[in-house]
Amino acid sequence: MADFAHCEDASALQDYWAFRSEVGLSLQDAVHGTVQLGPTARLLCDSLPVQRLRGLSQLGATRWAFPTAEHSRFGHCAGTAHLAVAAARHLAGTGLRVTPGQVELLEAAALCHDVGHGPFSHTFESCFLPAVRGNHCWHHEDMSARLLEYAVDQQALDISKEQLHLMHAIISGSSSSSNGNSSNGCAGISGHWGDSDSSWRLQIVANATNGVDVDKVDYLRRDALMTGVGAAYDFTPLLSNCRVIEGELCFHSSQQPALVGLFAARAAMHSSVYQHRSARAAELMVVDALLAADPVLHISKHVDDPEAFLTLDDSLLGEIKRAARRDPQCPHLAAAAAILRRLDTRQLYAWAAEAAVPEQFVLERGAAACSLPAADVIAHQDSSLGVYLSEGDLRLSNMSIDCGKGIHDPLDYTRLYSSNSSSSSSSTWLASQGIARPASFMQRKVRVYLARPCQGSDRGRYLRAVQAAFERAVAARFGSGATICCCADGSSSARLDPWQQQQQQSCVTTQPLAAAAAGFNAQQHMIQGTAGLVSWPPSPQQQKQQQQQRQRQRLLQAELADDPMSGFDVEADGEGCSVGQQQQGCSLQDGPVVKVWSEES
């Protein structure tokens, strides 16, 4: 086993595949079927850092919006390791020099690439820790490297410091050494693997060049399956239609539609699942509960010690509840327990409104300027409404939905080849060539929630006050080109049926109608995916299909209304206007145009 882990002889690869099938650990996976882990990964699988992943939900608080999203990061990491080995095996078949030792390191790194995640995944890292520690940077990739070393020591694996550095580089997708010298790090990696360019090995698990990697291929398919969104995001053919040309991972020209679909799927999942309104409300409540309990439980200090960090998983919320019962007089624990009680009874923070930041503002000012602090909303409240808002009444969520490269087209960083291409990069071309592409690849949104617990008429009054202040703040910061979508009367509570929530919404567009029509006609959005070509505006045939779909959804709505167990808080799309709604009126006045959306009669 140790011989193969250190074997850099490409001729021994066939013997290695046979050895894996004999001693490997077989796992049954809902996505990939049988997943087999090799010798090194099998030992790492039994370590504390990897086993801890069973207690981390892959989608964090999203399960409060999608009840079946209960899959763990352990399954995702095992699936990612499986795909990493499949990619390496395919590349070896193309004539690339691949050794057993490289496969072992790739697989082990893929298995451990998420061990540094905290409870509730990115919410812990991007929301909770910055609120507690300020500008003190902490990244789960760095903790993954520390826990990887911990796992190697725990399992007494024969892995050198140099190999640990290589695995860390694979996990992060960067060849930078620990001292920050990227050139030295890259030279060390190339020297270890015996070739002049090892960039492709850093593109298998975490592809920093364009985002096409086994991590994304696994989680898109797994998350879509487990949330039940109905999309079959299977991009595994990309891994069997690739080749390394001058150190870069390139894809066959036949996979151009699949590449377009991969990046579109990422944006779609962020819009409809990862940044779902109710899921985001649950995440904000989890963050508030952690912040309230932190002065007593010192949760944030666990990230400084790998041993203490290993005790953190999603059961942390239960620990907070038990601590509050043991010490009912503690105000911090009582506040945290009250928030969790609201979460358990699905009294989520009420979504009030959201705004899409104008594209021109993003391009001119940058993504960093697209955030809207709660203080700005409070400063623009309308005193004539008879409601006084404080910052504690609001929660702002600043979101970004893109294809993986921010404002850039990821296809501009992805190269294609044809069947008769040579091994030179001059025979490849950019994947964005020859197809219609949208003008924009990133959308910034700002969403506001009412965190204040209130019922009845008070709820409606506070929601209207929040919406009025939010609209003024958005207009003052982003100008009149912003698009605002808001709840009509504050009844989009998580306690209501999801179809009722969608019916009680209105959309307010602050962009003039003529300008909106001109921009719409000038840009024909086309998304070409594995399922074919989808164009906008829809064709008559597509409009007929959409009408039939709306009819089926109305029938489903009637069934849900009679079913007391249908408390699924799943919206039809990520934009806040339900499928089955159409524009019924539009008045053109001096200034902004107000579009009122309501359910079809």
UniProtKB/TrEMBL annotation:
Start and end residues of each HD/PDEase domain: 69-229
Compositional bias per record (Low complexity), positions renumbered to this chain: 575-585
A GO MF label: dGTPase activity
Region (Disordered): 562-585
CDD domains xrefs: HDc
Gene Ontology BP term (one): dGTP catabolic process
InterPro entries referenced in this protein's UniProt entry, alphabetically: dGTPase-like (IPR050135), HD/PDEase_dom (IPR003607), HD_assoc_2 (IPR045509), HD_domain (IPR006674)
Cellular component GO terms, alphabetical: nucleus
Signal peptide range: none
Source species, domain of life: Eukaryota
Protein name: HD/PDEase domain-containing protein
Upper classification of the organism: Eukaryota, Viridiplantae, Chlorophyta, core chlorophytes, Chlorophyceae
